[in-house]
Structures are given as C-alpha cells and as structure tokens.
Amino acid sequence: MRFLHTADWHLGRIFYNLHLTDDQAYVLEQFVALAREARPDAIVIAGDVYDRAVPPPEAVSLLGETLSRLALDCKVPVIVIAGNHDSPERLGFGGRVLARQRLHVVGQVAAEAAPVAVADEHGPVYFCPIPYAEPAVVRERLGVEAAGHEAALTALTARACAAVPAGARKVAVAHAFVTGGVASESERPLAVGAVPTVGAAVFAGFDYVALGHLHQAQQAGGAHIRYAGSPLKYSFAEAGHRKSVALVELDAAGQAAVEEVALTPRRDVRCVEGFLEELIAGGATDAHADDYIAVKLKDAGALLDPMGKLRRVYPNVLHRIFEEPALAAAAATRTDHRRQSEAELFAAFFAQVTGRGLSEAEAAAAAGLIEAFGRREREVGA
Amino acid sequence: MRFLHTADWHLGRIFYNLHLTDDQAYVLEQFVALAREARPDAIVIAGDVYDRAVPPPEAVSLLGETLSRLALDCKVPVIVIAGNHDSPERLGFGGRVLARQRLHVVGQVAAEAAPVAVADEHGPVYFCPIPYAEPAVVRERLGVEAAGHEAALTALTARACAAVPAGARKVAVAHAFVTGGVASESERPLAVGAVPTVGAAVFAGFDYVALGHLHQAQQAGGAHIRYAGSPLKYSFAEAGHRKSVALVELDAAGQAAVEEVALTPRRDVRCVEGFLEELIAGGATDAHADDYIAVKLKDAGALLDPMGKLRRVYPNVLHRIFEEPALAAAAATRTDHRRQSEAELFAAFFAQVTGRGLSEAEAAAAAGLIEAFGRREREVGA
C-alpha cells in the first residue's frame, strides 16, 4: 500500500498583503503530477486545506479543480479532513455525493466513524478520517465527557479503532498538536486558555498517523506518527524548511516506510543579510530575484528609502528585519503582543485597569468567555 | 418527460432578524417527498439557491443534504444554476465530480455550453444550464460584444442552442428578469444604472424555459416560459402568493403542460388588520398564531406597547404597518430611500452637495463606478 500524505495547504493565504493563489496553484500542479507518476493507492490531506472558514472564491475554485483532477483524472481515492482553519460545514458540502467518486471530504465529526477501506494485495487498509473538532463539539456529538483536547481526541480515535476489523491495518488522518512537535510561526493556536497538545499515545494502535497542523515536516512521538508539513513556506521563520510531501509505503505487516518528496515553490521565501549597496549589486545578477524576501541590513547609519531601492532589484522584498543593537535592546524590554494569547492580553489589560492581577476564578471565567467567542466566530464563519 | 422546476430557495435568508433555516428545511422536506412520489425524470433549480454569496454554514449543510437526497436517494438528475445572489465559484465547488452522480451544479459560465441530456421513450431532452452572469463576464468568457443583459443572454442562449442537435427537445434553465414579469419586494435588482430586463424572444427555440429570479410563480411572454417562484414568502408583499413548484410534462413534440404543486410553509407569512383589543382576543383562538405576521392597527389614539401586547398571542408578529392618515401623508412627502437605487441615491447626494444635477457624462461615470463596486463586492464574496 502506497499513499501520499500532505496537509496544511492553506489555500487563500495572504502573505504580507500578497495573495498566494498563484504560488499555491503552482505547487499543487506538482502534487497532481506526483499523484499521476507515483500511482499511489490513496491520498490523504490532513486539514487546513483552506486558510480560513470563508476562503476567497479563487481558493474554492483551486481546491475543487485539484481534488477533481486527483479523484477523476488520476482515479485515486482522496481522504480530506477539516483542520482548525476550515469551516466544517462549508468544507463538507456535498460530501455524500463526492464520496461516491472516491472523494472523501470529511468536514464535521460524523454521527458514526466511517473508515475508508482501500485494498492492496495484502487486504484492506482502513483510513480513519478524524476532522479537527473542539472538545465541546466532540462532547455533544459523541455523548462523552471529554474535558480537553486530549480526552476528545482519545474518544475519537477509540471510536475509529472500534469501526475497523481487528487485526486490519489502519491509518489515522488527524489534525492536532502532538506533544513535542515543533511549531513554526504560521500555525494558529488550537486552544485559548487550555492545553491544546495531545500525547502521541492517543494514536496507539494505528500503523501510520497522517497529521496536519504543524508546518514543518517532522515525526511526533514515533517514526510512524508524522506531520507532512505545509507545501509552501507561510512565514519567514520557515525560510530554512524543505517543503515536501510524504510518500508512505505500508507493508503487509503495517510497517511504514516514508520518503519525503520535495516540492519546488514558484518563488522561494528567504532571508538575506548584508549592506544595502552590496545587496543591490548582488540582486542584479540574482537568478531568483523575484523570491519573497526578508532583508536584514548591516548598515549603521540612517538610510534613505532602503526598501524602495531594494525593490528595484528584488521586486518581492516584503519585510525588513531590524537587529541594530539599540533597536534590539529596545525590543527586548517591550512585550510583543502578537505573541501573547487572548487570555494573556486580557490579564494584562485587567491588571492595567484595576491595579491587581486576576483571581483564579476570574481567569477561568475570562477563559470561558474567550473560548465561547472564538467558537461563535468560527461558527458564523468570520 | 416529466420534470420539477423550482427556483429562488434563498437558503440562509434572514427575515426581520429571524433565520429562516428551519422553515426552509421544512418546505424542502416536502420538495424531496414530491420528488420521491412524482418520480420526475429531472429536477431543475433556476438560481438563487442561497440568499447571499457567503451563506451561513447551516444553509450550506441544508443545500448539500437536500441535493444529496435528490441525486442519491431519489436517483433523479438535478440541474442547478447560480442566480444573482449566489457566488458562482462557491456554488460550483466540485461540480465536475458531482456531475458524475447526476448532480449538475453550474456556478460559472462554462468555457463551453454543456447541455445535460435526459432521455425518455421519445428520445433525449437537452437541459441547458445558463447561470446568471453579468454582461462583462459574458463578454470576457465568450469573447462577444454583448453590451447589456439582453445581448449577453442572447449570446448564451445561442451558444446553448448550437450545442443541442437540431430538432431535439430542449429546456433552458436561466435566471433573468423577463420583460413584463411582476416583481415582489424580495428580489435584488439585477443591474444598477442599466436595463436589467430581457425580452422573451431571447429564449426562442426552447420548448420550455425554467426561470428563476421573480418570486411569484408566473408566465413571462408565453405559457412555456415560466417562473416557478420561491418556495416560501420572503416579504409581506408576498402574503397573497400561493407558493408552489412547477411539475412540467413535455410531450413527444416538446409541448409543455404545467401543474403547480402547492407547498405548505411551516409558518405562513400574512398581514392582519383590526383594533388592538380585537386582534388580541382573536389571537387567543387562532390556530396559526405562530405565523409570521405584519399588523395594521385601526386604533386612532396612542397605544402603550401594542407590539409587546400582540406578541403575547402572536409570538412572531414582526412588523407594524402604519396607515393612519396623518402618518401616511407625512410618509408621502418623504422619500423612502430604501426604494431608491444606488444611482438615484448618489444623484440626490450630489445635488444636495453641489446644488446642481448630474450631467449625462457624470451620471454615466457614476453608474460605471457603482457597477464596478457591485461586481467587486460580489467577487470578494462580501
């Protein structure tokens, strides 16, 4: 059994005000070509196919066209789940009809676990789609007491395992933050005021776990528990990543061997460093001058419109990284609010207004409210 | 050949701050039952399936579930087009895959006309899906000069006819305002500063024209050119309508006979008139007191919280109609801005600011801008 594992396409992503649709179409073209050449028995896409609940129309068209090519032209069964960025209802449109054509798009947690069986010469492999869902949704849908993310996912994986015949090979397709995984800058936190991570033990019993959420390809708690990573770099913190797709071979005993197949972006995301004049001179002969670039300038004094000048040779220079000693020192004493959670921001605001910290009960009440707002926001698809 | 013709479902509609999803699910249940009992050879849904480009998630689920039941459970080919309320790209998601399961959802004007052939004992009938599109889109997609709505639709119907074998029976499925049709209050105008209506002659050659847009069931320029009307009353102006679905029989020669099959709403939309005390007394024994109600009070003097009192017997009284002579007279001298088009509003604003009317060139420039904004708004799915 050979299958492709990918995740975190984030179609409709905007990167420093630029729509990445063309870049995404470019890399998905490679993915479709790979599906055609590698002739996998199945394809799994482990969530965050869109960047937001209501993606732009071009992203909807791109996903529809790509999935149609995989299912109809390549004739490969495709299993897609919703991630925390996707709207379960929107993504799941027409799922029952699409499934008749090998396209299994699972947006919401279904009333019953419905593993997708794909057979090879050794018998069936059961792909268990486990879309991302908040604990409250799992509690309601499954009628369980699951308090947090780990308990909720445990209930879902247990249900999935129970739906697979004993002894059969099985693959989980899930969207979660497994303890020990390394985050990049471009993931959206899964939980506010709660523990979003889950132990790898929740996936005990699966022969392979196809994960989505973390954007760097990596193992998490075992060689067979993997993040495929995003197909493109979605932040400058990912400049050093090598983006890829996992090509997984599952043998008769369920032993998985993974090959990372590299993807080539239309434009790379990278950081350059040097003196302004030096960079401008180098850019003139840079074959990849249209890459998405963050620049760190070594020049000591003030510069006149350095970004404008750089843009003439690097048209997609998007960001300037400051690290002049004085600025860095100033930055160190300042809190970067973008790195604070909603709960932390509220606590800071409360302290500033009242002159005292939150009591434990107040903090819990605030966390509850923030979670409720977040849930409502996702529900209305904002 | 027997087929069901419906249109203007407007799923996700909000009526005086009430979400109508439950009412829509109720009436669609009847529609599915009808499809099961009448055993039609096809079903056509002529646009405005959603109320807006980005419908709420529950509307997406309801449409997906309803279409799945029609195509999979009833096993009837379904042809759906986008109306002016729908987002062509969003509605068209997965269209190529869905079409393999008899579900033909046509959001965008396709690169080529693709009639759907459904056969009976007399041979095939070609259903030609013609989704709503603005003239600018038609010009670009078909490479024609079509200046206005009529020219654009003429180009589309001509292309559709050319794709059907000569002599074969054919049915157009379109979303348009045919000259002479009677509008209700709940349609959204198709054009700003332009002529949105089209002559019935653009549909010459079709044996039946299944129209959407106008919410009252009616003929338009011929017995075989029909609006099915919306399945529910979407304004109090429609209180007198009898909502229905058209059950069409097309004989061997292409002659159409139409039966209007009535639909029963979960709650009716109606207007009541009388003295407050009278209405309150009557409401106590009204078996349909939970209908959506607009009330016109005959009482002469001031009343203390009449709507609050009425709500105790009519929980869904939503609107008070004023027609006291003094108020009516005052209203007559006032312009109702809600009934003015964007172009009229801008002209009034311009006159107020500058003290003079718009020149012809200025009016044309303004109309162009308004149209461009409207198009952009629909594109971003706002």
TrEMBL record, chains A, B:
<feature type="domain" description="Calcineurin-like phosphoesterase">
    <location>
        <begin position="1"/>
        <end position="89"/>
    </location>
</feature>
<comment type="subunit">
    <text>Heterodimer of SbcC and SbcD.</text>
</comment>
<protein>
    <recommendedName>
        <fullName>Nuclease SbcCD subunit D</fullName>
    </recommendedName>
</protein>
<dbReference type="InterPro" id="IPR004843">
    <property type="entry name" value="Calcineurin-like_PHP"/>
</dbReference>
<dbReference type="GO" id="GO:0004527">
    <property type="term" value="F:exonuclease activity"/>
</dbReference>
<keyword id="KW-0269">Exonuclease</keyword>
<feature type="domain" description="Nuclease SbcCD subunit D C-terminal">
    <location>
        <begin position="266"/>
        <end position="353"/>
    </location>
</feature>
<keyword id="KW-0235">DNA replication</keyword>
<dbReference type="InterPro" id="IPR026843">
    <property type="entry name" value="SbcD_C"/>
</dbReference>
<dbReference type="Pfam" id="PF00149">
    <property type="entry name" value="Metallophos"/>
</dbReference>
<dbReference type="InterPro" id="IPR050535">
    <property type="entry name" value="DNA_Repair-Maintenance_Comp"/>
</dbReference>
<keyword id="KW-0378">Hydrolase</keyword>
<dbReference type="InterPro" id="IPR041796">
    <property type="entry name" value="Mre11_N"/>
</dbReference>
<dbReference type="InterPro" id="IPR029052">
    <property type="entry name" value="Metallo-depent_PP-like"/>
</dbReference>
<dbReference type="InterPro" id="IPR004593">
    <property type="entry name" value="SbcD"/>
</dbReference>
<keyword id="KW-0233">DNA recombination</keyword>
<keyword id="KW-0540">Nuclease</keyword>
<keyword id="KW-0255">Endonuclease</keyword>
<comment type="function">
    <text>SbcCD cleaves DNA hairpin structures. These structures can inhibit DNA replication and are intermediates in certain DNA recombination reactions. The complex acts as a 3'-&gt;5' double strand exonuclease that can open hairpins. It also has a 5' single-strand endonuclease activity.</text>
</comment>
<dbReference type="Pfam" id="PF12320">
    <property type="entry name" value="SbcD_C"/>
</dbReference>
<comment type="similarity">
    <text>Belongs to the SbcD family.</text>
</comment>
